[in-house]
């Protein structure tokens, strides 16, 4: 039986749902416009979506915030949080929405609606450069995996388990971490054998450190990254959907995707994702 070691506190989707039921709901668009600002939670350590350059936030979301501030008739107030508490803060009503690279999952869709996706979130494995033990998904059998606590990567690990079982293997130990820089450090020093992340941050990592890491094969089916917000904010969802259409039609979304992701994603869904059924249909699951 595989062992799961948690190096940081993990927030279950049940905890998210409970926090949402015990606190006031997040503001919908009319309340945001009345008070004059929208509160958003962003992440501190998930390049290229959100990261810190010294004491200043940087990344794709920083540029998106600039566009949103120009588009909106109200102020945008940003707080930078660690990933492990971010979604719970949004579900509890402390923030109106999350602006980060949040993957769409079945579990999260029970608590959140998602704006139209802005990137692919198919998962790939990463290994140390030159590690000849790993040349395919089958070679991951029994090896130690590093993954972020509370992330969508955990919810889609059953897909990797099926792949391994089909080749006669099994999932090994799973080490959970608060942030990816810690995971990559442990991969580099050999504490874990491989790491799983979605395609955008994988490409970013390999382009920056090709002498240290190598990308491997896909370990999940298709997926998306998008911005989650509480289900009781339908007007805000429509507003952010219109904002995404504005970015797409002006060409600015493709420009920012090329800048930060190294490619544009021209075939992404252009409508919100509000149910598991919609998600599965969009992703061909």
From TrEMBL:
It comes from the Bacteria. Keywords: Signal. Residues 37-264 form the Solute-binding protein family 3/N-terminal domain. Residues 1-26 form the signal peptide. Pfam families: SBP_bac_3. The keyword Cytoplasm does not apply. InterPro entries: Solute-binding_3/MltF_N. The keyword DNA damage does not apply. SUPFAM superfamilies: Periplasmic binding protein-like II. Belongs to the bacterial solute-binding protein 3 family. This is Amino acid ABC transporter substrate-binding protein. It comes from Vreelandella boliviensis LC1.
């Amino acid at each position: 039986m595989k062992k799961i070691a948690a190096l940081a506190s993990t927030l279950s989707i049940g905890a998210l749902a409970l926090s949402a039921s015990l606190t006031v709901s997040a503001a919908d668009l009319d309340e945001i416009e009345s008070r004059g600002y929208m509160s958003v939670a962003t992440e501190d350590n998930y390049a290229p979506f959100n990261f810190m350059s010294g004491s200043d936030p940087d990344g794709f979301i920083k540029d998106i915030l600039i566009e949103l501030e120009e588009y909106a008739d109200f102020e945008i107030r940003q707080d930078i949080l660690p990933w492990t508490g971010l979604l719970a803060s949004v579900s509890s009503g402390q923030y109106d929405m999350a602006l980060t690279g949040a993957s769409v999952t079945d579990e999260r869709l029970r608590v959140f609606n998602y704006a139209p996706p802005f990137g692919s979130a198919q998962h790939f494995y990463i290994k140390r450069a030159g590690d000849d033990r790993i040349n395919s998904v089958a070679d991951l059998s029994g090896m130690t995996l590093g993954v972020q606590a509370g992330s969508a990567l955990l919810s889609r690990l059953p897909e990797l388990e099926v792949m391994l079982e089909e080749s006669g293997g099994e999932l090994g130990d799973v080490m959970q971490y608060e942030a990816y820089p810690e995971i990559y450090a442990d991969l580099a020093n050999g504490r874990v054998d491989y790491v799983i992340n979605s395609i955008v941050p994988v490409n970013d990592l390999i382009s920056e450190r090709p002498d240290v890491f190598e990308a491997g094969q896909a370990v999940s089916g298709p997926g998306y990254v998008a911005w989650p917000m509480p289900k009781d904010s339908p007007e805000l969802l429509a507003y952010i959907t219109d904002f995404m259409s504005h970015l797409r039609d002006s060409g600015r979304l493709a420009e920012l995707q090329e800048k930060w992701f190294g490619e544009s994603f021209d075939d992404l869904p252009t409508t919100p994702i509000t149910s598991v059924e919609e998600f599965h249909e969009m992703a061909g699951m």
